[in-house]
Design goal:
The protein is α/β, with parallel strands linked by helices. The protein has ten helices and ten strands. The protein folds into two domains: about 5-200, 2-enoyl-CoA Hydratase, Chain A, domain 1, CATH 3.90.226.10; about 205-250.
Length: about 260
Amino acid sequence: MNYNNILSETKEGICYITINRPKQLNALNGDTIAELNQAITIADTATEVRCIILTGADTKAFVAGADIKEFAAFDKSNGENLARKGQELLFDLLENASTPSIAAVSGFALGGGLELAMACHIRIASDNAKMGLPEVSLGVIPGYGGTQRLASLVGKGKAMEMITTAGMLSAVEAKEWGLVNYICTQEELIPMAEKLATKMKRNSPMAIAKAIKSVNAGFTDGVNGFNVEITEFGSCFETPEFIEGTTAFMEKRKAKF
């Protein structure tokens, strides 16, 4: 598949998706969001893909934000549609995908860029990363799920501080607040993501998908995460992967999923 704003390549069960607009610091525009939707959908439905690694071209920015030129003249209705469509096409899609995703963040992850990283299941940052939601400095608020996901990751108080001050966190601060899982050098960024992906590849993709669904349920309004977990746990017992996993354990061999 050929894209104009992203690169997508699958190797050894890992789909590498790169936002490729370095001259614009990989800013998200409508076309880029549409292409990401397509690439993530394809990866999530491909049986050979066991993990998605999402990153940005160049080391200056993962994604430096949304492309402001696209919505500077919008009215209220246009703004609501922009946020709703973006969340449906990309951010909610990524968070609820059955395939685990890792954001490999180098440089700036601001506004829509941080929102994109937060929609991934795991985040790794290089030591030059800077993360924040500076939208209020432009007279607007985060619109791609940032107010919700940031609070769930760093807590309400820190999220309020970051959003209202439009401040940025360093990689070290992001790790301290639980915004990222690991920090490494720029050279180690993709290898570390690949190391995590390799561990995921050893496990049951069916079970991982059900685990993602269950964890997300606990952060969804009106949904009882414990009940979802019970249902998904029970449904595992009817699958070939459960039979293979338990049989391999009893036979003292590695399961083949």
